[in-house]
Amino acid sequence: MSDYRAPTPDSVPGAATVGTERVQAMAKSGEAVLIDVYPAPPRPAMLPPDAVWMPKTRGTIPGAVWLPNVGYGVLADDMDRYFRDSLERLTQGDRGRPIVFFCEPECWMSWNAALRAVRYGYGAVQYYPEGAGGWAAAGLPLEPVRPESNRPESNRPEPDESP
Fold first, then answer.
1. pLDDT greater than 50 at residue 19
2. Is residue 48 part of a domain?
3. What CA–CA distance (Å, rounded) separates 1 from 147?
4. Using one digit for the tens of pLDDT, what is the confidence trace for 98-137?
5. Stretch 60-72: mean pLDDT
6. For the chain, how big is the Rg over CA atoms in Å?
7. Would residue 74 count as lying in a domain?
8. Euclidean distance between CA atoms 46 and 139, whole angstroms
9. What range defines the domain where residue 121 resides?
10. What's the Cα-to-Cα distance from 146 to each of 36, 68, 159, rounded to whole Å?
């Protein structure tokens, strides 16, 4: 459940797999919603509540929205609601609008999020397995991004949850 950095299948059932050139074209045209699902670093547990904490900046594909933690194998109810509500808002209720999910190479977060969106009824789900790392390796720029607001703080499954 938490070991999300591992080799993934080449495709997601019900979704199209896209490469860097196609994502670049969709980003340029604005036809798709680009969603980075890389997990957000949790606030260190030992950090005093009044201590300032500055998480590392995330570099992502220009124009992408960062919805962290929505790609774990199991989502807590509040995280599932956040993901559904965010997709509804970002697509403006158009379940046929192309959505590109990505993370990093060999990252289950994007695979899981894409499959989840297909199961939610979105019909133009795109899976970009190369992710932000593949984008950067192609010589394309990344931009800093902050997580979307109104997200639950965590989504780590409870230890007794099964896969």
1. yes
2. no
3. 21
4. 999 999 999 999 999 999 999 999 999 999 999 999 999 9
5. 93
6. 15
7. yes
8. 38
9. 16-40+58-145
10. 11, 10, 28
User: Is residue 108 situated within a structural domain?
Assistant: yes
What's the whole-model pTM score? 0.85
H or E segment and range at residue 36: strand 33-36
Domain assignment of residue 86, yes or no? yes
The CATH number of residue 117's host domain is 3.40.250.10
157 pLDDT band (50/70/90 cuts)? Answer: very low
Number of domains the chain contains: 1
Q: How far apart are CA 143 and CA 63, in angstroms?
A: 8
Q: If 0-12 CB within 10 Å is exposed, 13-18 middle and 19+ buried, where does residue 101 land?
A: buried
Q: What is the pLDDT of residue 6?
A: 67
Q: Which of 115, 129, 120 is nearest to 96 (CA)?
A: 120
Distance CA 73, CA 46 (A): 26
Distance between CA 125 and CA 96 in Å, rounded? Answer: 9
Q: Residue 162: its pLDDT value, please?
A: 33
Q: What is the dihedral of CA 18, 22, 27, 31, to 10 degrees?
A: -80
